[in-house]
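Is this the right way to post structure tokens for a design question? Let me know if I should format differently. Anyway, here goes:
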């Protein structure tokens, strides 16, 4: 079961739709249908149960997400959630940037072992910087950023389309919803 870490979120959006409780799977299907119409290249879609922390996993606190990933950007995953909240439906998505295996490994090392392995880690980091440029946004060229923005924007468009369709079906005024995302791209 994957974990959604707040520290990895680089872009997010969400809304509440009053009177739409119980419509989670309908929303997911609307998003999938819209994405099939938009036909973004190299898109993988899966439905996963996710948790926010190990403690919450032990307590059984999990949420169902659509995980959307472009094969061109394996370090970036967009996680889309739809869940009841009283008589409302919460819809939210989070674009996450997973750190490389190098950073995951280095961050897990005890301090003493880190300093013992420091010369080897420097060589590995140089190798990673040369051959794995898509890990950090600041290392991407303008065309890679453009493609990542198009990936996130396409999914945002599908999510707002699904949200609007659900809103219209329950009589909720969707014009009250702020469509701007928060984060690196600030999509609309």
């Amino acid at each position: 079961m994957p974990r959604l870490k707040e520290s990895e979120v680089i872009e997010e959006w969400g809304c509440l739709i009053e009177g739409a409780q119980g419509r989670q799977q309908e929303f997911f299907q609307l998003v999938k249908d819209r994405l099939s119409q938009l036909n973004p290249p190299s898109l993988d879609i899966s439905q996963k149960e996710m948790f926010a922390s190990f403690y919450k996993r032990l307590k059984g606190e999990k949420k169902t997400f659509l995980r959307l990933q472009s094969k061109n950007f394996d370090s970036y995953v967009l996680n889309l959630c739809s869940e009841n909240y009283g008589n409302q439906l919460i819809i939210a998505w989070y674009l996450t940037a997973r750190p490389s295996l190098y950073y995951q490994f280095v961050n897990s090392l005890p301090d003493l072992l880190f300093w013992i392995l420091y010369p080897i880690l420097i060589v590995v980091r140089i190798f990673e910087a040369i051959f794995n440029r898509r890990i950090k946004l600041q290392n991407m060229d303008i065309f890679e950023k453009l493609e990542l923005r198009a990936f996130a924007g396409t999914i945002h468009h599908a999510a707002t389309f699904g949200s609007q369709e659900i809103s219209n079906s329950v009589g909720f005024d969707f014009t009250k919803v702020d469509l701007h995302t928060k984060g690196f791209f600030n999509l609309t």
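Format looks fine. Someone answered above. Worth noting: The CA atoms of residues 80 and 93 lie 4 Å apart. The helical segments are 24-38, 54-59, 101-108, 111-131, 142-170.
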